[in-house]
Amino acid sequence: MKRKQQLLTLPGVLVLAIFAILPLLIMFVYSFQSDSGAAGVTLENYARFFTKSLYLKLTYRTITSSIAVTAISLAISYPLAYFMAKKFKGMKNILMILVIIPFFTNQLVRVYSWLIFLQDGGVLNKFLQTIGIVSGDLELLFTQKAVVIGLVHAFFPYMVVTIYLALERVDNSLLEASRSLGAGPFTTFRNIVLPLSMPGVVTGIMIVFVPCLGTFVEPRILGGVRGTVIGTVIEDQFFEIFGWNFGAAIAFVLFALVVLSMAGLSHAGRRFENE
Amino acid sequence: MKTTRFTNPIPSLYALLMLAYLYTPILVLMAMGFNESRYNTLPFRFSLKWYGALAQNRVLLKAAGNSLLLALVTAAICVVLATAFVLGAKTLGRRSEALAQNLIMMPMSIPWLILALSMLLLIRFLAMDKSLFFVTAGHVVISLPYAMLALQARIKVLDPALEEMSASLGAGPLTTFRRITLPALAPAIAAGGFLAFMISFDNFAISYFLIPAGTSTLPIEIQSSIKFGFTPEINAISTLIIGISLLCLLAAGLIMRSSLEHMLGRKDT
Predict the structure, then answer these.
(1) Which positions 58-77 of A are in contact with B (Cβ < 8 Å)?
(2) Strand partners, B35
(3) C-alpha to C-alpha distance for B239 and B231, rounded to whole angstroms
(4) Does A213 touch chain B (CB under 8 A)?
(5) Which of A207, A266, B174, B261 has the fewest CB atoms within 10 Å, i.e. the most exposed one?
(6) Which of 241-270 (A) contact B at CB < 8 A?
(7) Which residues contact A241 (CB under 8 A, 6 or more apart)?
(8) Cβ proximity of B217 and B87 under 8 Å
(9) A10 touches chain B (CB under 8 A)
(10) What is the pLDDT of residues A66-108, one digit of tens each?
């Protein structure tokens, strides 16, 4: 009976094994084959990636812009999550729903809405002209800034949710105890609230930083030529240049980056959990 | 004694600012669907012509139909797999349960770009053609973790005594499943199906890499019209999608309030 019931896990596991694990292994094998059609195992794809300054520069840019997006998301999400958990009473459920609703609107539509909003002669441009902040064109679209604005918009609500859930678990009586023992609001925050919310912060960082590394649609739409990142290079290898094996190698470098950052972050997360 | 109630305005102002950041571009986009200008420029002149154009746009409507069908099939497969998995997983040993679980959840932490193109390489490795079978398989892989989230939250609070009682009263395993376990899991199955549906309906990366030539989904059409010049019909259909999503969300929220709250880690208040 128990044996039989254990078998129920099999279909799900098999689907993942066949359509996720096996493809990743194949990608790994392909990354060691030559695009020129020569047989045998070769390191030429990786050699090309790590010796061309262009690719290293793009890797650097992908990482720094993902860090920027994550840092900005954290900076704007934490206060919102804190206010929601500790300051608002009846409003917080409505606010939570309002933060979550955009998850359920098409991601491309949201990126596209920034394209319309930020374009020269668009709504933001006209508004800033009217109040006299800019005189001419905004020249914000098709820059790295536009990509960061769009990506923060796409990802920061996740961070609000994870931090909010962590803060919600912080017992209010702890805060009162701290206050009655004479600690100021800042001391209470630094010594009690912040450490206890760290698991939520780490999960939030993970949930924003990792998908940022792999974006390719948003950088292309909002960043244009200046938005090129690893993701767009990989896409080009598959759709424009047909250098699939080289593309597989770049994808594997990206995959390695993802695994490393996941490992680092979950290590950090476990440390905070134990404290 | 009179107490003066001083409320700090900063939290409310800050929340308003964040909501403005979150919603302004979306609202502008929705407004532009009613603007006459082809290039989304101001001044604003009200017009319904883009909705008229949308009604005529066979390609876009066909793509929307494909997305809907794909998302429904994906959601159906995901809830079956996820339900079977959570029922089986509790009989596994602690270590193999964790292993199987991490495997199912893995696609949540890998960029979809990587999963998509590795599947493209699988198709090439098998010397097969791109097909809807692989698109669906890809959608299932990325949506399954979300369906699992909903079901796991529920199975954790399910009382095992109920099933034992049912068995001790002479019900066979199938009857127990049908009469006890399934009804108890139903809200979570609905919630999980809803999440999987949304993930699939929204997905661009997997479809983009795996879809056979000549077929498309709504996100693919949206992407290509952004790429090849603006069509304000996109504003119109986006507004419709947002409106329909909100209605679904509202309906889903009303139906499955408790299981969503469990997922958010909150108890019923």
Answers:
(1) 76
(2) B46
(3) 14
(4) yes
(5) B174
(6) 244, 247-248, 251, 254-255, 258, 262
(7) none
(8) no
(9) yes
(10) 999 999 999 999 999 999 888 887 778 888 888 888 877 778 8
Alpha helices (runs of H) in A87-229, residue ranges in sequence order: 91-100, 107-118, 123-130, 144-168, 172-180, 185-188, 194-213, 217-223
A176-199 residue pLDDT tens: 888 888 888 888 888 888 888 888
Instruction: Measure the CA–CA gap between B128 and B124, rounded to whole angstroms.
Output: 6
Does the beta-carbon distance from B88 to A6 stay under 8 Å? yes
Q: Do B91 and A6 touch (CB under 8 A)?
A: yes
Query: Which of B113, B133, B182, B207 to mutate to probe the A interface, most A CBs <10 Å?
Result: B113
Residue A166: closest C-alpha in chain B: B265
- Residue A183 touches chain B, beta carbons under 8 Å: no
Q: Are A8 and B88 a contacting pair at CB < 8 A? A: yes
Q: Measured between CB atoms, which of A5, A101, A258 is closest to B249?
A: A101
Cross-chain Cβ contact B18/A76 below 8 Å: yes
Comparing C-alpha atoms, which of B69, B59, B65, B222 is closest to residue B135? B69
3 state DSSP class of B35: strand
The two three-digit tokens of residue A105, written as one number: 């609107």
pLDDT tens, position by position, for chain B (269 residues)? 444 455 778 888 999 999 999 998 888 888 888 877 766 666 677 777 788 888 888 888 899 899 999 999 999 999 999 999 988 888 887 888 888 888 888 898 899 999 999 999 999 999 888 889 999 999 999 999 989 988 887 777 777 777 777 777 877 777 877 777 788 888 888 888 988 998 999 899 999 999 998 899 999 988 888 887 767 788 888 888 888 878 877 776 676 665 555 555 544 43
Distance from CA of B104 to the nearest CA of A (A): 6
The tokens describing B197, both together, are 């549906």
The model carries a pTM of 0.87
**Per the CB < 8 Å rule, is A26 touching B122?**
yes
CB B212 within 8 A of CB B130: yes
B245 contacts in A (CB within 8 Å)?
104-105
